[in-house]
Specification:
With about 270 residues, this protein is α/β, with parallel strands linked by helices. It is about 45% helix and about 10% strand. The protein is globular and about 55 Å long.
Length: about 270
């Protein structure tokens, strides 16, 4: 597979192919991420690469169940208040992101698309609220059903009840082991393992093993969320977690499992079950 995030998306199709797919009632998957720093060892595009890869895996899972989908051009102009203090972390205003997503949905609606599912890999609150607001506005205007696909854990962290209109909720099993005291959320072992699995040329593998683990807790995260100089001081390396402890097999298993869970939730939504 090449490294283009347009591979296997609508971008690499002709308009008659897209029109034919829409006439057959294909749903659309829309990968959403950001361009932001991911430590000294991974390129800026982790979030959009991962959301794109999840979308490809979801597409494959749904096809196995007889449900055909298109993947929209990946969207990556998101909100980076947390890492905005680092060069390379682009950020747009909340209203800008809402407007672009809403206009994108209007385009899809004008072609006859009926169902769109946002597949996001970026945990900032306002970024996710922009997606939810775009979904809400699209549904209220009629003609297209947009959905934001989130796990139960993500919904809780974004202060959602789980019953919001346009929210496709993914059931998540309870953890099999107690959570770690220290967070591994950004450019740590999971994201490092994912990128080495699917996009190894985006990782500076020669320095990964030399990176020391951070020791950030939930309380530290509250300070980091404010961004600015305080965030830059706390996460001076641009990561929090333990990149050197990446596990290729477990990270691949994680992403494939997540894609399977998302595909099941999308199938349930489409079938009204």
């Amino acid at each position: 597979m090449g490294y283009s995030i347009f591979d296997d998306t609508m971008v690499d199709m002709t308009w008659p192919e897209i029109e034919n797919a829409i006439q057959q009632n294909y749903a659309v998957l829309m990968p959403v991420g950001v361009i932001e720093e991911h430590g000294p060892h991974i390129s800026l595009a982790v979030d959009i690469y991962v959301s794109y890869m999840i979308s490809r895996l979801i597409k494959r899972n749904l096809a196995d169940h007889g449900i055909q989908t298109l993947i929209a051009p990946p969207y990556y102009w998101g909100i980076n208040a947390l890492t905005g203090c680092f060069p390379g972390s682009f950020s747009v205003r909340l209203e800008t992101m809402q407007a672009v997503l809403r206009d994108t949905l209007e385009s899809l609606k004008s072609w006859g698309v009926k169902n769109v599912f946002f597949i996001n890999w970026h945990a900032e609150f306002n970024h996710n609220m922009a997606v939810m607001e775009a979904v809400k506005l699209a549904r209220s205007s009629g003609g297209i059903k947009a959905y934001c696909v989130l796990t139960e854990y993500e919904a809780r962290s974004f202060k959602l009840s789980g019953r919001e209109d346009g929210l496709t909720l993914v059931k998540t099993p309870p953890p099999t082991s107690p959570p770690s005291q220290f967070l591994d959320l950004h450019a740590g072992s999971l994201e490092t393992g994912l990128m080495l699995n699917y996009f190894p040329e985006q990782v500076k593998s020669d320095i990964v093993r030399s990176l020391e683990p951070t020791r950030f807790t939930i309380e530290d995260l509250k300070s980091i969320r404010n961004g600015g100089d305080e965030a830059r001081r706390l996460i001076s390396g641009g990561y929090f977690g333990d990149p050197a402890r990446f596990d290729l097999e477990n990270s691949k298993k994680y992403l494939e499992g997540r894609a399977g869970d998302f595909a099941a939730a999308i199938e349930s939504t489409l079938k009204g079950t």
